[in-house]
Amino acid sequence: MSDAAKWQKLIDIMATLRGPNGCPWDKAQDHDSLRRYFLEETYEVLDAIQAGSNTALCDELGDVLLQVVFHARLAEEEGAFTIDDVVDSINNKMIRRHPHIFGTDRVADDPEAVLSMWEEIKAAEKKDCSEERRGVMQVNDNLPALMLAEKVQNKAHRVGFDWPDIDGPLHKLKEELTELEAAATKEEFAEELGDVLFAAVNLARFYDVDPEQALRQTVHKFMARFNYVEKRVEEQGLSWTDFNQQQLEAFYAQAKQQEDSPHKA
After folding, report:
1. pTM of the model
2. Fewest C-beta atoms under 10 Å: which of 34, 121, 256, 263?
3. Are the CB atoms for 188 and 181 separated by under 8 Å?
4. Are 70 and 14 in contact (CB under 8 A)?
């Protein structure tokens, strides 16, 4: 089967599922009801990438592609657009936003220059569309908070609104921690904690560290240490309540020592 035939088969499958004799579940969906599934499938892709499994990645990318075709089918039924319009749109966008590649005299010799040019062209597109939201801070508020913070900070950086060196974000993080300690109410604490997290993301950006991955790595590290503590509790045939905090923390310290000495039993 040719590539074009495979693509058409997927489109036909979705049309059948949404058709008069189609699947009751598929026929009951709309753009809003599918939001959670699109997000879940996206995270499944990230999980496959982290696992380093090409087989899983291929499968999960197919699930994401199905979501794209599903939404396009809904839009076609509404008379809004078709999957062909979706493909045309991204084809045109990629050519338009890569003028340094597709036949113009624009030059971009490094990734940062490409991103700056991308944002410049994107801003011009938004202006041409006469959207209500204007300016540099055109962001998707539905992004995870850490990613949203990093994206906002990068946008500010690209127009020159940024610290000149690492001392700025380091000092800011210390300042925000001091204000967090001084918080007197739950509301103040929530606000200052947000400031601390925002400052931490800014610091991560200066170190060229992905804050999402950094936090995820720490969470996984804690989980591994906690599992060690749980194993020690179970080995003694007791329950968690049979140990005091100091004893549990001693087990946790042992887990850390195991990490520092990987060749130990």
Report:
1. 0.63
2. 263
3. no
4. yes
Consecutive 10-residue averages of pLDDT for the chain (265 residues) = 91 97 97 94 92 96 97 97 96 91 82 83 72 70 89 90 95 97 97 97 95 92 96 93 94 90 47
User: Token digits for 264?
Assistant: 């130990």
